[in-house]
Design a protein that fits this description.
heterodimer, A: Dimethylsulfoxide Reductase, domain 2, Barwin-like endoglucanases, 7-stranded mixed sheet, 6-stranded mixed barrel, B: alpha+beta, Glutaredoxin, 3 domains, 9 helices, 8% strand, elongated
């Protein structure tokens, strides 16, 4: 095991730690105040069998499997160890004949109605009931009567099936739904032996978190549609990795069979996901398995894309890019995308674009983000700090739709009552009911609202004065975390950034980014944004440092996504027009909110290189297509919303001729006549660690150290990361590793690849935070954003709010069989009084006129909206169009008029 | 899902909710109210109750399905319960149930095709000295023999007992003298007194803790 750096706190689950001593099976053990006996015993290395107990949920003590003998005033008695707090001097026996008899009895009763269909049950082989029966059970049943029967399986949602005969009524799923997700759409009904988990008629368990119930079900009662009958657990091979479906960075176990992904399970990471996943992260792996992946290089010949060799494709790409540079200089090339890349891929593409080609017109954010300097420069908070802050300000979209597990963390904090939520948004979100103040603003008024909150301006019209006053009181707490994202995609991100920089004046304020796209934070950290260089360094401050390392850096600041697309579309008449586009896994017509701009930009470019894994409009338009390996097909690192750098693992061999992104960048540089001297992914990471100031000290050894299994937060100050010594929910440890933990006989080999720990010492660069040794300073403080002024509107026009929905038309969902049917169309939501004025009602059609278009869409009443504000969601069917057709990226807000068609 | 409960029922539901510190505490009484309107708990009613007390419809269904007196399936105008627990069984309860099944042409738990009578096998109805004990819509009708039972059914069908036995769903106990009266002032004063007592206890506890620390 690697040595921990000096000053390292002991791992919190160390068996020797505790407030007092108690006696466990005759030996002294340490207990903590408020700790459940079952958990204290587990820390001391004594596993007590259980079904209903889950450390991330409240104890209920219903399954009775964890009975142990506890000596009390009236002698030793059997008590449920999950429902009994450990106390000083407590005498506990977990293996007496009395306990054994109780375990036998409980298991015999549980098996009375449990079918013996293990050979055809998905859970067989990794089933806590099976395992614990083997380890603790009687082995034989005296029950000869008829078991209870139900129709089976019944769908309780589009993704989850329920087999009521197998259910042992532990209530893990119903408690998860009510307690963790806050959506009690499943509950027990009936009584006694006929009790069953049920949904309400026509109200399926449509939670975004339904897949978690499948994972924590201790029997095969709940199964997931995508996994059902596809594999046996002992045939699965698995690695530990990080989910990059959104930017939360949940730890996952990735399981595959025969080079196809079969299942993703959540791993309990204390700083990040607490074991939970959203259904998109859990099931979108199907897009990796999709049949229509792009798997070979292609070039356009006589208007047709034809498969070719890598060398010809790279040759053509290099030639096309060189041609554009000859005609219009390096700034004629724009690079869009990068959030689907690993940090290594992002870094090398940034070096190729900025160091080799020399263009700064690079943007990983696709018009749906915030200025990079704002995200990188504002003081940062971790997820854990946000979830324990006195006040959390939500200046972001609906987290349940955008970063679902972040929603779970903040929901838990708000439900506990430890955190006051203040929400600034133009429409309600899933967290709104839990807020202490909800400040609903009209699109365009966000800066004014922020000023009102910090006492530097009057309140904007229409904002509730009482809520404002209450919010101001909470903002003075000195422990404020602002969750910063995009409350609406129809409102200029610069305005939100300016509002954030106003809020940065609050005492003790820190920021947690809520940008949602995959590895967007890694991409920004690696310099895939205009005006920044790898390691959170400004172009100006870091220019000299990177010029020494790379040979050259862009001469001046480049364009952002909107600028690149507008220029490619022919808007403006400057001589340095963007004529060539490199698309890094991006699909502008879907990803960029302003769909018209995306189409014009893509159409206006004379040369397009698409580095991608999926078909779409980008490929249809591309002159050269370079197939890239997807998530789970290449190793590397990723960086989440809090700047946590963690490993992503390779589980599959990339299909066809797909390459990892760093390799494509490295080879393309060679074809462009510049060898970056990179021959392995490890070499890329070494260079990042050496050159990118915010990543200094995060060596490969550090990332592989056992104590850094959850990753480390950049900039790395040398503090080790706490790591649970035992898995929190051993009976839901992904895969068959759980068998051993539950006391069943050992088996050959572990299906979990242990996190590789270096044998030697880990050298940790202490306390530099990435500074010193001639490195340029990392960005700090507000960037001084000045958003465009919004002109007041006439009383007839409406302002548009565009949010997001988890299941949208994005690539991950579109290519996942199980998720595609979950995409629903979005109406235009309008305040009911405004609908009355128009003389229409929910379900009717309305004509929407914007400055450049007119479309007819269905409406729905939404009393949660302010008057003269309408809302819808991006990337889902919206009449015959999508909301992106109404968005104008060049206008700070979108104004529209509604007419009856 | 609102709009299923009638205005009168809804007004009484709101009164009931105001009686409790937590709205969801009124869940079961509200289910009885809905049964008073419909005779059974319709899904629409459960959804509206969920909205009124701030839980999900699945939770209302989960709670309601626990109780025998809340019916999630349609019930006839008259619910006839025959006890077959020990005293009644010894006094012919099972035979009476068998007779009733034959006479009505439905099994226990079933409803006659005319929608008038639902037959139910009941656990102890707490009237063992009148075994075999029978209730109609939860009102005691005294010990029955097969002959008196048939007469009773005939009376019920002809509406001759409708004065003393209202159609299924109406529970006298819920109505408390023909209407639940929650005097808002009294409720407010009781709550204030509770809060005061709680604050006093907290202050005393704090004082005790402080005194301990000081000594």
């Amino acid at each position: 095991m690697a040595e921990q750096p000096a000053g390292a706190p002991a791992a919190p689950t160390d068996a020797t730690e505790g407030d007092f001593t108690f006696t466990l099976n005759g030996r002294p053990a340490r207990g903590r105040k408020g700790e459940m006996l079952i958990a204290a015993a587990e820390r001391a290395g004594v596993f007590i069998p259980r079904f209903c107990y889950h450390p991330r949920m409240k104890s209920v003590g219903v399954c009775r499997m964890c009975l142990v003998e506890v000596t009390g005033p009236r002698g030793a008695a059997l008590q449920p160890s999950c429902y009994l707090e450990v106390t000083e001097g407590m005498e506990v026996v977990t293996d007496s004949p009395k306990v054994k008899k109780a375990q036998d009895g409980v298991l015999e009763f549980l098996l009375v109605n449990h079918p013996l269909d293990c050979p055809v049950c998905d859970k067989g082989g990794e089933c806590p009931l099976q395992d614990q029966t083997l380890a603790y059970g009687p082995g034989e049943s005296r029950f000869v009567e008829e078991k209870r029967h139900f129709e089976k399986p019944i769908p309780i949602s589009d993704l989850v099936l329920l087999d009521r005969e197998r259910c042992i009524q532990c209530s893990r799923c119903t408690r998860f739904a009510a307690e963790v997700a806050g959506e009690a759409q499943i509950d027990f009904s009936g009584r006694g032996e006929m009790i069953e988990v049920s949904t309400f008629p026509d109200e399926p368990f449509s939670s975004y978190f339904s897949g978690n119930t499948v994972q924590i079900c201790p029997v095969g009662a709940l199964t997931a549609v995508p996994y059902r009958f596809t594999a046996r657990p002992w045939d699965l091979d698995q690695v530990e990795s990080t989910c990059t479906t959104c930017a939360m960075g949940c730890r996952v176990a990735v399981q595959s069979s025969a080079n196809r992904l079969t299942r993703i399970l959540g791993i309990d990471s204390e700083p990040v996901n607490h074991g939970w996943l959203c259904d998109k992260g859990r099931f979108a792996f199907e897009s990796v398995n999709a049949e229509d992946r792009i798997t070979q290089p292609m070039v356009r010949r006589d208007g047709e894309l034809v498969p070719t060799t890598w060398s010809e494709a790279l040759d053509q790409a290099a030639a096309g890019l060189r041609r554009a540079m000859t005609d219009g200089g390096p700034e004629a090339i724009g690079v869009l995308g990068g959030a689907r890349l690993t940090n290594e891929g992002a870094y090398l593409w940034a070096r190729l674009a900025k160091g080799v080609i020399g263009t700064d017109s690079v943007d990983a954010q696709l018009g749906d983000g915030l200025p990079a300097e704002t995200v990188l420069g504002l003081p940062r908070a971790t997820i854990a700090e946000a979830a324990s802050a006195a006040t959390v300000v939500l200046l972001c979209g609906d987290l349940r739709e955008e970063l679902p597990v972040a929603f779970l963390r903040l929901r838990a904090a708000a439900v506990d009552g430890t955190t006051a939520l203040v929400e600034l948004a133009p429409q309600r979100s899933a967290l709104t009911p839990l807020t202490t103040s909800f400040l609903q603003y009209r699109p365009g008024d966000v800066v004014e609202l922020a000023r009102a909150l910090t006492g530097t301006g009057g309140p904007p019209q229409g904002v509730d004065a009482g809520a404002l006053e209450s919010a101001r009181q909470h903002l003075g707490s000195g422990d404020v975390v602002v969750v910063l994202g995009r409350p609406s995609l129809a409102e200029d991100g610069a305005m939100v950034a300016e509002a954030a920089e106003v809020l940065a004046g609050l005492p003790g304020v820190r920021f947690l980014s809520a940008l949602r796209r995959g590895n967007i934070h890694g991409a920004l950290d690696m310099g895939l944004a205009p005006g920044v260089l790898p390691g959170r360094v400004g172009l100006e401050e870091g220019g000299a440092w990177f010029e020494r390392a790379w040979g050259s850096v862009p001469a001046r600041r480049g364009r952002d996504c909107t600028g690149i697309l507008s220029s490619a579309a022919g808007a403006g008449d400057d001589e340095s027009r963007v004529t060539a586009l490199v698309l890094l896994g991006s699909e502008p017509s879907v990803d960029v909110p302003d769909r018209d701009l995306a189409r014009r930009g893509l159409g206006g470019a004379s040369f397009v290189v698409a580095v991608t894994s999926s078909p779409g409009e980008a490929v249809d338009r591309a002159d050269v297509v370079l197939p890239a390996a997807e998530a789970h097909e290449r190793p590397g690192t990723t960086t989440n919303i809090e700047g946590r750098v963690s490993r992503v693992a390779q589980k599959l061999v990339p299909p066809g001729q797909a390459w990892p992104d760093w390799m494509i960048a490295s080879e393309l540089a060679r074809y462009m006549g510049s060898d970056m001297g990179i021959d392995s992914m490890a070499a890329v990471w070494a260079e990042i660690e050496r050159l990118a100031p915010a990543y200094a000290g995060i060596t490969a050894d550090v990332l592989d150290a056992p104590w850094a299994r959850d990753g480390v937060v950049a900039p790395f100050a040398g503090a080790p990361v706490s790591q649970a010594a035992v898995p929190l929910d051993p009976i839901a440890v992904p895969g068959v590793e759980s068998v051993e933990r539950q006391g069943a006989p050992p088996r050959a080999g572990s299906a979990v690849t242990p996190t590789a720990g270096p044998d030697g010492q880990v050298t940790v660069e202490q306390g530099t935070g990435g500074q010193g040794e001639g490195r340029p300073p990392v960005l700090a403080g507000p960037a001084g954003i000045n958003a465009p002024h919004v002109a007041p509107t006439d009383s007839y026009s409406f302002r548009l709010v565009v949010g997001r929905t988890l299941y949208d038309g994005g690539t991950a969902v579109a290519m996942s069989e199980a998720l595609t049917p979950l995409v629903t169309s979005a109406p235009l939501r309008v305040n009911p009084h405004d609908l009355d004025d128009l003389g229409i009602t929910t379900g009717d059609l309305v004509r929407v006129r914007t400055a450049r278009d007119s479309v007819v869409v269905p409406v729905a009443a939404d009393p949660g909206l302010a008057r003269k504000v309408v809302a819808t969601e991006l990337n889902v069917p919206f009449g015959d169009v999508t909301a992106g057709d109404l968005i104008d990226a060049t206008s700070p807000v979108v104004e529209l008029r509604l007419e009856t068609p | 899902m609102s709009g299923h409960l009638g205005p009168d029922i809804l007004a009484r539901a709101r009164q009931l909710i105001s009686l409790y510190p937590e709205p969801r505490s009124a869940l079961v009484p509200l289910c009885h109210l809905a049964q008073e309107q419909d005779g059974w708990l319709r899904p629409e009613a459960m959804a509206e109750i969920a909205e009124l007390v701030g839980v999900t419809p699945a939770e209302v269904q989960g709670t309601a399905s626990f109780y025998d007196m809340l019916h999630l399936e349609p019930v006839g105008t008259y619910l006839v319960s025959i006890c077959t627990n020990i005293s009644c069984m010894l006094d012919g309860g099972l035979e009476l149930l068998e007779h009733a099944e034959e006479h009505l042409g439905v099994g226990a738990g079933g409803t006659t095709p005319d929608g008038k009578i639902t037959l139910e096998e009941a656990e102890c109805l707490a009237d063992c000295d009148h075994a075999p004990c029978v209730q109609v819509n939860h009102r005691y009708v005294g010990a029955q023999t097969p002959e008196t039972f048939d007469a009773l059914i005939e009376d019920l069908r002809a509406g001759r007992r409708s004065d003393e036995i209202p159609s299924h769903g109406t529970l006298i106990r819920v109505r408390r003298d023909g209407g639940l009266r929650a005097d808002p002032e009294q409720v407010a004063s009781e709550r204030a007194a509770m809060a005061e007592a709680k604050a006093r206890r907290a202050a005393e506890a704090a004082e005790a803790a402080g005194g301990e620390g000081g000594s």
